[in-house]
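Consider the tokenized backbone below.
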């Protein structure tokens, strides 16, 4: 299992804290008791969860300029027509994907093209499925323009638990469908705003995978 680079600082710090705590406990009480073994078990489960959370599975992405791929692993939370107020300022189709703490949290570009806009917004930490999370929570917005001159917006959104968004997009950069777009640490959501004329190919409640599942057909 490959660990994503964004997880290495967290994993290192967690291991250091756990080792230090175990040393202190053993100095205070050098004879192992049921409390020691309980703590060891809890620490083992914690480290195993952190390693699992930051996994970065290898995926073979089949590039298709006629399709919009999912930017995130998770479950389709919403599909609705909505005014995109930040960049396009017009009605578009919003597809939201909710990522639980058990999902892979590496986000991928849904299409190939040029990054024409990217911005980080500080904000609140409402639960990821809250209707206002897309506008009120800490988030990043990335606008991509394809070779066919189709533009869409992808938004990484922090949740109640997720408080750290990493994104790699820079305006003017040429990106490839399925490449790494960013990482959200611990439970969150990704929204994608697509032109009205696109054909949506997913349903609410459907499970999707970043770089694999087709969200819509251009």
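A designed sequence for it:
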């Amino acid at each position: 299992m490959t660990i994503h680079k964004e997880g290495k600082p967290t994993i290192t710090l967690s291991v250091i804290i756990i080792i230090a705590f175990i040393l202190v406990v053993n100095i205070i009480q050098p004879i192992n008791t049921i409390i020691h073994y309980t703590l060891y078990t809890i620490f083992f489960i914690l480290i195993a969860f952190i390693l699992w959370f930051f996994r970065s599975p290898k995926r073979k992405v089949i590039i298709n300029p006629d399709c919009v791929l999912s930017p995130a692993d998770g479950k389709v939370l919403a599909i609705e027509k909505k005014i995109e107020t930040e960049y396009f300022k017009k009605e578009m189709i919003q597809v939201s994907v909710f990522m639980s703490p058990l999902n892979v949290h590496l986000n991928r570009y849904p299409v190939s093209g040029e990054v024409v806009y990217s911005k980080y917004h500080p904000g609140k930490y409402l639960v990821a499925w809250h209707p206002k999370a897309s506008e009120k929570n800490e988030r990043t917005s990335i606008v991509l323009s394809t070779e066919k001159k189709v533009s869409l917006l992808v938004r990484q959104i922090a949740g109640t638990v997720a408080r750290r968004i990493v994104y790699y997009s820079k305006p003017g950069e040429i990106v490839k469908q399925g490449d790494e777009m960013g990482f959200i640490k611990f439970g969150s959501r990704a929204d994608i705003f697509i032109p009205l004329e696109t054909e949506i190919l997913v349903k609410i409640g459907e499970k999707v995978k970043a770089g694999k599942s087709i969200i819509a057909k251009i």
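The two ends are 34 Å apart (CA to CA).
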